Target: Zf-HC2 domain-containing protein
Amino acid sequence: MAAERGADPHVWQQLGAYVLDALPEAESGSVARHLQRCDACAAAYVEVADAVCLLALLDERDLLE
Model:
């Protein structure tokens, strides 16, 4: 599942937008395909997705503390 180094660029910088479904369709598809081939990016995706889920549990009072 791991991509060769240099085979294609990693997608770490796009993961936040990908998790929030904020990428254009073509770019989102490219990220999805990369995640299927790259263990490192797939692991980073899980961390970002978990963080987004945890942020959804916060309310305004939590953020002001």
Notes: Residues 12-64 form one domain. The longest helix spans residues 39-55. Confidence is low (pLDDT under 50) at residues 1-6. The radius of gyration is 14 Å.
